[in-house]
Design brief:
This protein is α+β, with helices and mostly antiparallel strands and about 375 residues long. It is built from nine helices and 19 strands.
Length: about 375
Amino acid sequence: MVGAGIVGLACAWWLQCRGHQVLLLDPALAGDRPGGDPGGVQRSGSRAALGVLMADSFHRDRGRAWELRQRSLELWSQWRRELAQRGHPIPYRAGVLLLAADGDEQERLAALGARKRALGLPLERWDRQRLEPLQPTLPQPCLEGLHCGRDGQLDPAAALAALAADGRQRGLALRGDAAVALQPERGGWRVELAGGGAEQAAWVVLAAGTGAGDLLGAVTGGDGNRWALEPVLGQALELELAAPLPTSWPGTVVWRGVNLVPRPDLEGGRRLWLGATLEPGGTADPDQLSQLRQLGGAAPEWLRGATVVRHWQGLRPRPVGRPAPLLEQPAAGLLLAAGHYRNGLLLAPASAAWVAERIEAGPLGA
């Protein structure tokens, strides 16, 4: 397994649970434990994630992307219970409230809620009367809301740490080195390492973000462009509020694409995560951070008066010209699970299940 972000860790942990012997490779493991606190400057996408799980509230209700989200939502519930029983709880808060700031958004939310309720999903329309008790905490304008009770938010750092710790207890091996080349060898693969030497494996799973295309190009006749990934940077903030948010706050709130994520476990409920920006490339734009901080000029007084405690950023790998994520088998014994873009944490369990199914079907995935 190459890559120890949330997708790589989820795949490694799930395979280990199913009786496979797994070695997880990532240079970050040499000097940074999985689940380390996100902070400061450039970090991996997983360690900079907000942990918002938007499955039922996804704008589609059929197709691969929808099915992956639904499967992951079920698996996360199962995994959290199992990890908690084994001494590795992952903090979780249920509920995502989508807000409509104008008439067009209001129509889209109404249509989304109607479609999902027709499928039997518990999405509730919150009108102005239902939202009124939350004032003045909601950004304005706010015409209506759609509450998604099965969606929610889990702590990304705790999820990384739980999977790594429980994986170790089950026999998962972790090595802080980078894979630099792949070579077919004796019905399996030889993985050349940056620190020298190599590892041999019957299967290799690439979950290494933007570096996956380079590794694949050398073993697929230069066809690495088919799996090309481009970085998209996201900046986020942790704020300390002057007063705790009211207990009526309905989990994560999404206003015009910005997530407001309460942290009830920190400082008596006076901490809030705010994010994230969408910036092409790998260089952070201070103007976009300022727009995020002020919600484009619409931040309520309580948010404008908050103190910035932390600022962090991370790169999300996005497939070039193809839908995310890339779950493919480029060659016998070689799997790609990468390019999850903004949904790595949400889709990690479904990706792990796909990887395990392919491996257990045999080298050709038959």
